[in-house]
Write a structure and sequence with these properties.
Elements: E1 9-12, E2 15-24, H1 26-38, E3 43-47, E4 59-60, E5 66-67, E6 79-83, H2 90-95, H3 109-112
Antiparallel strand pairs: 1-2, 2-6, 3-6, 4-5
C-alpha cells in the first residue's frame, strides 16, 4: 500500500517494484529504461492491463433476434515501468538531484518529462545568493 500517490509500489512479474510510471508509451519506456539503468536501477516493464469496460448492451434486430455486439476498440499498447528498489520515488529523485544523464548532467524536470533533449542543470536557487549579503 502506497504512503501517498507519489510513492507507489506493486508486484510486476513477481518482483516487488517501486512504480516509476504507468501507461507509458513504448518510446517513453525506452527513454526511462536507458536513463534508470544508467543510474544503476534494475528496470521491470510489463504491459498495462486493458481498462475494465462495462458490458455492451444487447441490440435487438427487427426480427427479434439478438445481434452480436460490435467488437471493442483495440486498447492502446502502454506499459507500467518500475524499478526493483521499491523505495524509489521519482519526485524525490528529480528534485533531490539524484539522477544523472549519460553525459554527466543532473536530470531536471523538463528533461524527465522529455520537454528538453539536453538537461540544463542550473545551480539550485539557494546557491545563487549573492556574496554581498
Amino acid at each position: 500500500m502506497a504512503i501517498n500517490k507519489n510513492h507507489e509500489f506493486e508486484e510486476l512479474d513477481g518482483v516487488k517494484c517501486g512504480i516509476v510510471e504507468k501507461n507509458a508509451s513504448p518510446e517513453r519506456v525506452a527513454f526511462l529504461k536507458k536513463l534508470l539503468e544508467y543510474n544503476h536501477f534494475t528496470v521491470v516493464t510489463v504491459p498495462t492491463p486493458p481498462p475494465k469496460t462495462a458490458a455492451a448492451p444487447v441490440v435487438k434486430t427487427e426480427e427479434g433476434a439478438d445481434a452480436p455486439p460490435p467488437p471493442p476498440p483495440p486498447a492502446p499498447t502502454t506499459f507500467t515501468v518500475g524499478v526493483t528498489d521499491y523505495t524509489f520515488n521519482p519526485i524525490n529523485a528529480i528534485f533531490g538531484r539524484l539522477l544523472h544523464t549519460p553525459d554527466g548532467h543532473v536530470v531536471t524536470l523538463a528533461y524527465w518529462q522529455q520537454l528538453e533533449t539536453v538537461s540544463h542543470d542550473e545551480l539550485p536557487y539557494y546557491e545563487n545568493i549573492p556574496s554581498a549579503l
